[in-house]
Queue: 4 jobs
Job 1
Amino acid sequence: QDNSFEQFIINYCNEKLQQIFIELTLKEEQEEYIREGIEWTHIEYFNNAIICDLIENNQTGILAMLDEECLRPGTVTDDTFLEKLNQVCATHQHFESRMSKCSRFLNDTSLPHSCFRIQHYAGKVMYQVEGFVDKNNDLLYRDLSQAMWKANHSLIKALFPEGNPAKINLKRPPTAGSQFKASVATLMKNLQTKNPNYIRCIKPNDKKAAHVFNEALVGHQIRYLGLLENVRVRRAGYAFRQPYEPCLERYKMLCKQTWPHWRGPARAGVEVLFNELGIPEEEFSFGRSKIFIRNPRTLFKLEDLRKQRLEDLATLIGKIYRGWKCRTHFLLMKKCQIVIASWYRRYS
C-alpha cells in the first residue's frame, strides 16, 4: 500500500521493458508493413515513451531531480525534493501532486501532501516521498571501501575492489538511482540485440487458489500488459512473413514448375507456387522482399501439403532405389548366365 523509492525504480524498469515490448512488437510490426509496401489498417496504441522520459530525462526527469537534490549544498529533505518536482513536472500530464501548481489536483483528497502520483502504462501509482533522498544517497563512502579492501580475508577484499589505492577515484560515488538507471540502460541495449520471445503470465486470482477465475482481475492485467493492442495489430495484419528465397526453398516441391529447380527470380517462383496451389488472393500479399500470409490456417495448409509431399518423395526415392537395386542384380545375373552358357557351349 505504501510505495517508496524501491517500488519507484522497479516500476521504472517495468516501463522500460514495456517500451521495448512496444518497439519490438507493435511499432516494428507496423513499420515493417510500411517498408514492404503492404496495404493494411493502422492500429493506434499507447506509446509509454513519454512516461520513461518523465522518469529518466537527464535534465527534467525525476531521477535527475533526485540526484540534484542529493548533490546540492544546503538543507535537503524529501519535502524540498517534492517541491522541486512540483516546479519542474507540474504541467506533465502523467505527474500528479497536491502541492503542484496545477490546480486540477488541489481538491484531490485521495492524494496526500507528502506524495506524488505517476500515471504508468499499467495505471496510476502513488509514491510516498519520505525516504527518497536517503535511499538514493545510500553510498559506500571511500574510506569504508578502503578499510574493507585492507582486510586480511581474501573474500572481503575481493568484494570491495574500489578500495584499492591504485584505483582511487576522487569523484563522488554514483547514487543508487544513477546505478539502477545505468543497469537498466545496459539491459535494454542487450535486449535490443536479441530476438526475444514474450511470455505473458496472467494471475487468475489473488488467493493463489485453484479453479478460481476472477474475470475483473484478468481483464485488468490484459489491458495493462498491452495485450489488446497486440492482438488488434496481429488481427489487422499478417500472422506470418518470410523472405522469398527461404519460402521458395521450403515449399518448391509442391509445384511441378518450381521442382526441383526454379531458374527465375524467387518472387516469381513464389507467385507461380501460390497460384498453382490455388490459395485465395486475400490470404497473402507480396511485399518488396517478403511474402505475407494473413491467417495461420494457410500456413498450416502449406505445412500439411509439404509433409505429404515429403512422404511421397520418400516413397518415390525408395521405389527408385529398389528398382535400381533389382535391375542391377538382374543385369549381373544375366551377365553371369551368358558367361556360363558360352563356356558350356564351348565344351559341349
Job 2
Amino acid sequence: LHMGKTMKEDLTVVVKYIKQLYPPEFNVFSIYAELYHNYFASQTKKSAESHLEDKDIYLLLSWVHNFYPKDMRKDHVLAEELEKVQLGSLLPSSLNKELEKKYLDREEATIKTLLSRCLDKEIQRWKEEEEPEKFSGHFQSELLGIFVIQSIYSGQQRAKDISTAVGEELSHRLWKELPAFLKSYKDAFEDFKEKSKKHRYYKPIVIASVNNCWNFRDYTEKNMSEKDDNKASILSTLSDIENSGFDVLLQQLFVQLK
C-alpha cells in the first residue's frame, strides 16, 4: 500500500511539474514510471514467493489484477502517460497462475469445510430437540437455507473481484461441491425422518427442510447454466428432499381421507 501510494503520488508530481522541465526526447515520465514499476514488481514477486496466509494471497492478487492496473494506472492524471509506457503486470505469468491456483484451492477447501460444519450443526440441533427458526412466519433453517448460500455467493464474489477468470473458476468448483453437500443433507434428513418420528418438533423440522429447498432452487436457477450437469443433479436432489417431506406432511391428510 505504501509503495502504491508513493508511486502514484510521485508520478503525479512528475506529470504536473517535472516532465515539462526536460526536452521531450528525454522521456522523463517513462524513465520514472519504469523504475518505479520495476521496483514494485520485484517486491511483489518477492512477496509472492514467500509463505503467505490466505488473506495475503487474496490481497496480493487484488493488487496484481485490480488496484495496480485499474486504480493506479487508470488514474485520470496518469492514465494517458502510462498508456505510452507499456509497463506490464506486477507478477510473471507463471507465478501469477501459481498464486491463483493456491488461492482457489484454499478458498474451495475453506467453503467446503464451512458447508460441512453447517450441516453438522443443523443435525446437532435436531438431536437437541430445538424448534427451527422462523422467517416471515415460516419455518426455515438459517444455517442451511440462508448461510450456506451466502457463503457460496460471497466466495464467488470475492473471487470475481480479483478477476472474471478467477471468479468463473471458483464458481465452477463450488457448483461441483453443492450437489455433494445437498446429497449429504438429503441423507441426514432421511435418517431423521425415519428415526425421529417422536421428536417434539418433528413436523416443523420437516417443514423447514422443505422450505430450505426454495432458496437453493432459486439460487441454482438464477446462477447456473442449463448446460451445467451439476444443475440437473442439484434440482433432482432438491425435488427428492421436497417430495420426501411432502410424503410425511400428507400422511395425516391421507389417513383422514381414508
Job 3
Amino acid sequence: AVNAVSLGKNGVVELLFKIIGPFSKKNTSLMKVALDTLAALLKSKTNARRAVDRGYVQVLLTIYVDWHGHDSRHRYMLIRKGVLQCIKSITNIKLGRKAFIDANGMKILYNTSQECLAVRALDPLVNTSSLIMRKCFPKNRLPLPTIKSAFHFQLPVIPASGPVAQLYNLPPDVDDVVDESDDNDDAETESEIETENDDDKDQHFKNDDIETDINKLKPRQELGRSMEELKMYEQFFPELSENFQEWDLVSKEPKPFVPDANLSGPIVVPTASEE
C-alpha cells in the first residue's frame, strides 16, 4: 500500500493508462502485466480518486467493450478480466461508483455478461461483472414500514445501552429502515499512506448485546423430583448418590470382579404391585 501511494504520486497510474489500450494481438503479455499492476495500484483510494478525476473509468469501459467484441475465440480472457479488476478496484470508493454509473457502466457490464453466459470458460468475467454491478447498484429502501419484528420475544438480558434497546425505544414516527452508513464514505480525511489492515479494526468491536458472563449463560439444572423420591431408584442409578471422585476412572487395567452382597437377593421394582 505504501508503494502504491508513492508510485501514484510519481505518475505511474497515468503511465499505465498509456500502455493499456484497445484490442491488439501485439504485446498481449505486456498488456496483461500492466492491467494486473494497475488493478493493484487502484486499490489505493488516493490513486482511485486520481483515476476518476482524469476520466479513466470511461476509458476502462471502452477498452473492455473493445476486447469483448474482438475476442470472439476467447483467447484473451485474462486481459478482459484484468480490465474488470481495474474497474472493481476503482469502484471501491464512492466517487468511483458514481463515475461508473454516470458512464453507463451498469448497462455495459449487464449486456456483456449476458453474451458470456453461454461459454463456461467466461464464468470469471460474469462473476466479476456481477460483483461490480451489485456494489454499484443504487441502494433502495426496504419495502417495510419498520425493521422491528411483529413478534416480541422475551430476552433474558437487554442492555439499556445496546442497539436492541435503542431500536425499541424509538418513537413510532421515527423511520428506522433507512441505512445512511454509505453516505459518508469519502467525508473523512485520510492519510496518504493507507494500510491494508482496515478490516482488522472491526474484529475489536464489542457488541453490547452479547452476554459474556458464563454464570448467567449456564442453564439451571433442577431435578423434576425431590431426592427423597429418587432414593428408591438408588440401586439402579448409583450416580444419584455415588461420589465418583474416589473412583479410578483413568486406569485401563480391568478391575477384579467382587460380588456385591446387595445384589445377591431378588431385585425388587419399587413401582410394581405386591404380586
Job 4
Amino acid sequence: SAPGRFADYFVICGLDTETGLEPDELSGENFEQTPLRRTFKSKVLARYPENVEWNPFDQDAVGMLCMPKGLAFKTQADSREPHFHSFIITREDGSRTFGFSLTFFEEVTSKQICSAMQTLYHMHNAEYDILHTPPTNDKDSCSSTGDCNGTAVSKLQRFNSYDISRDTLYVSKCICLITPMSFMKACKKVLEQLHQAVTSPQPPPLPLESYIYNILYEVPLPPAGRSLKFSGVYGPIICQRPSTSELPLFDFPVKEVFELLGVENVVQLFTCALLEFQILLYSQ
C-alpha cells in the first residue's frame, strides 16, 4: 500500500539542449508564425525519485501536462512572469494522481540553441520576402507607396524578431510536484519558494536538495480532519484535510470560477449540474 507521503515526485521539464529545437505538432504548430511564436517540444529533464511502486511515473503524461503548449521562447522585450497551473492524471483503474506546475523563464545559455533560433528567423524572413515581394511589373504602385525596397516588409519582419547579437533569448521551464491529494495552495507555495530561492541573489539557508528531500520523504499526508504545518524555504506552509463527515477536499478559490465564467454562466452550470445534464467546457 502507498505510504502517506505529501508528495511522490519532484519533476523538472524544459528544453533538452542535446535534441535541440523540435517542432511540437501536438500543440498546433503553425510554420507561418514567427519562430518566437512557435511551440517546440519540451521534455522531462529530471525527476526524483526515479520511481515509486505505488505510483509509477508516467513520463509522457507528466511531460505533456506540465507544459501542454510545449516550450515558449521570449526575448528581453517580452513579459516573463511565472505562472502556475494544476492537472490530474486518471488511470484505467480510476485512481488519480495530482500535478502542480510552476512555469517560468530562464536565459538560454546554449550557443547552439541561440544559433538555431537565429537560423529559423533567417529562413522565415527569406520565405516572407518571397511571398510578399510585389511583382516586377508593378512599378507604378511601388513608386506611389515608396515601398519598392521592401521597407514595409522589413518593418514587419523586425516586429517580434530575434537578433543573436542584440537580443537575450529566454525559454520556458517548469518545476512540478506530483501528489496523491489535491493540496493546491500548499504545493503552489512550495514551488514558488523554490523558484524564489533559485532566482534570489542570496542563497537559501540550506541546499535546495534538502528542501526537496524533505517534501518527498519527511512531510506526511495529514490525517483526515487534521491540518499540517511544515517548513518551506522561506516560511511555513499549511494545509488541511477534511474529515470523512465533511465535503471532499476542494483547495481551489471559487472566486476564480466567477471571474473566468461570469455569474450568469456559473448559475447556469450549477443548474445543469442539478438537472444532471452533460456539461462540456471548451478552452484554448
